[in-house]
Specification:
By secondary structure, this protein is of the alpha+beta class. The chain has 7 helices and 4 strands. The protein has a 4-stranded mixed β-sheet with strand order 1-3-4-2, sandwiched between helices. Helix 3 runs parallel beside helix 6. The radius of gyration is 17 Å and the shape is globular.
Length: 168
């Protein structure tokens, strides 16, 4: 696991380094106020959320590979369903939806056919590494991530809410 985390950290450090170089070319370093204003920009927040989804997806598949499991496929419709669930967590942080229905009813709403499903939720983690660390240190969440029953995943990060939906 340490080797996986070390390898992943190197990949993300390389990505961040490349992004930093691009940002320096586009913006003078002595303008930090401009950067903090951009962090409130919805487009900037959307880019951060997308990067978080990609990072979680990579971490999930690294964990699965390290544990002898097949990689999951990132499913766009499952990601859309996860987006709805992430938004709902502000109202009710639970595997039960604010309407009182099971979290899996979102799969039916999106017309997703499945023979098995799972959901991981989290709140308050700052980045992909933190949320994956939380999930991997929780038996139920870890079991979902490593389950050989699942073939697809949907991931979303909204505000401080994180959702993974798994499906077979």
């Amino acid at each position: 696991m340490d080797r996986v985390n070390t390898d992943l950290k190197k990949v993300f450090d390389d990505i961040r380094s490349n992004q930093s170089q691009e940002n320096e070319e586009m913006q003078k370093p002595e303008e930090p106020k401009k950067e903090s204003q951009n962090s409130k920009n919805p487009e900037s927040q959307e880019a951060v959320a997308k990067d978080s989804v990609e990072a979680v997806f990579q971490l999930v598949n690294q964990e699965r590979k390290a544990n002898g499991r097949r990689e999951l496929v990132l499913d766009p419709m499952l990601c859309e369903a996860a987006q709805v669930r992430a938004s709902e967590l502000d109202t009710l942080f639970s595997h039960t939806r604010p309407s009182g229905e099971s979290c899996f009813s979102i799969l039916d709403e999106y017309g997703l056919r499945y023979s098995g499903a799972g959901e991981n939720i989290a709140k308050g983690q700052r980045d992909a590494d933190e949320v994956m660390d939380s999930w991997m240190n929780s038996e139920g969440h870890r079991n979902n991530i490593l389950s050989s029953d699942f073939t697809k995943i949907g991931i979303r990060h909204t505000g401080d809410n994180w959702v993974q939906l798994f499906m077979k």
